[in-house]
Amino acid sequence: MHIPKKLVSLATCTAAIFFLAACDMATDDGPIVAEKQLPEGNSGQNATLPDDAKNSPNARFAAMALECVNKQYPNKISHVLNSAEDVKAPQALFPAFYGCFDWHSSVHGHWLLTRLWGSGDVTSLDGEIEAALARSFTAENIAAERSYFQGEGRGSFERPYGMAWYLQLMAELRVIEKQGGAKGAKAAEFIEILAPLESTIVEKLKVWLPKLAYPIRLGTHNQTAFAFGLMIDWARQGGDEGLEKLVRDKSLAFHSGDKNCPIGYEPSGEDFLSPCLMEADLMRRILGPDAFAKWLGAFLPDIPEDGKAGWLKTGIVNDPTDGKLVHLDGLNLSRAWALEGIASALPEGDKRIASLMAAAKAHSATGLASVSSDNYAGGHWLASFATYLTSKRGIPKKVTAETGSK
């Protein structure tokens, strides 16, 4: 049988690409890094908790992140290939943030470690955490990450979710730097190394935001409300008035007139962010207490005043090994922190606070019970969401779940 030469050529090229992807061989940009070439230290094997940390949820969350920040496979990359030279292993593409299954999960895994290390909540793991951060946060690694962001066809890479989490990581390091001491000095070193990529991300966001005509109301990564919340927190802490104004103006333009959000239609089957609650959690950052209370009354008019949790049911996960279905475990966690954030911004004595906090408590209990390393589908990221919730990262005023008091 005669096979056309064009088909032979196509088959040969296709085979060559798959060969490059599967093998550890050199390219013009250096070797494709195989799992065996991971740096020394924890590379995805089970972390051993010290005896004094075995009953600590924070230590368990930190151990889960330590297990995955240098674990290269399995991996899901979002990667634009401009030529066959772009066929590389994850660590060659993203030398700092290749672990934890995907780029954004690696970033917020590093944020988790930074958060708990800086807070002093897992002192028995401080040495291991600092070593893991130092392995990732090198000038060479971040230069390669920045180069990737600047590559052709990558303007929307990790926008907005991963970009927002990177800004959250930088914000966390600046909190630690201000605390002073040995950790503060080390955080300052990390900030200097990571700052060039931060600048690139902020530049990209400042180009993108004026062109964004509509909000993205999904319950997954592309949602704008959640990302805007992280962005404005970073901008206020770092004093970037330009980005703060862009986010604030867009938030008001998109959401100031929103009414009757259909929260009864939530959740969608693969949500890990609530479109309604994340929007409210964003707007409490934008509006003053009285204005926010009025806006919330129009936006979510059916929040009860009876102090019960039943008005908002927790999400159900029927298969925690399914990477999409397990998103609902994250939804319970993110709903909990959004509900607490909403309650924190209402004027004292608002009769909706008790019901918001009751729902937050129910979602928190369900979500935290699901955080496990048994299944990597959720294990590579849920601990970050749990840490954001339990450490009250996004809430300027402490709210007690049991009482709703401030």
Q: What can you see in these coordinates?
A:
The protein is an all-alpha fold. The protein has two domains: 32-211; 256-406, no CATH class. The chain is built from 16 helices and two strands. It has helices spanning 5-22, 57-68, 90-93, 103-119, 126-136, 139-149, 161-179, 181-208, 224-238, 241-255, 275-286, 289-299, 327-345, 353-369, 376-379, 382-390; strands at residues 26-27, 30-31. Strands 1-2 form a two-stranded antiparallel ribbon. Helix 2 (57-68) runs antiparallel to helix 16 and helix 6 packs parallel to helix 8. The longest helix has 28 residues, at 181-208.
Write a concise synopsis of the structure shown.
This protein is mainly α and 406 residues long. It is 55% helix and 1% strand. Strands 1-2 form a two-stranded antiparallel ribbon.
Number of domains: 2
Q: What structural class results from the helix and strand content?
A: mainly alpha
Strand content: under 5%
Instruction: Give, in order, the helices and strands.
Output: HEEHHHHHHHHHHHHHHH
**Sequence stretches where pLDDT stays below 50 over 5 or more residues:** 1-46, 399-406
**Can you summarize the main beta sheet?**
2 strands, antiparallel
Rounded mean pLDDT score = 89
Rg from alpha-carbon coordinates: 22 Å
Task: Please estimate the helix content.
Answer: 40-55%
Keywords:
mainly alpha; 2 strands; 406 residues; two-stranded antiparallel sheet; globular; 2 domains; single chain
What's the SSE blueprint?
Blueprint (H helix, E strand, L loop, with lengths): L4 H18 L3 E2 L2 E2 L25 H12 L21 H4 L9 H17 L6 H11 L2 H11 L11 H19 L1 H28 L15 H15 L2 H15 L19 H12 L2 H11 L27 H19 L7 H17 L6 H4 L2 H9 L16
Helix pairs in contact: 2-4, 2-16, 4-5, 4-7, 4-16, 6-8, 7-8, 7-9, 9-10, 9-11, 10-11, 11-12, 11-13, 13-14, 13-16
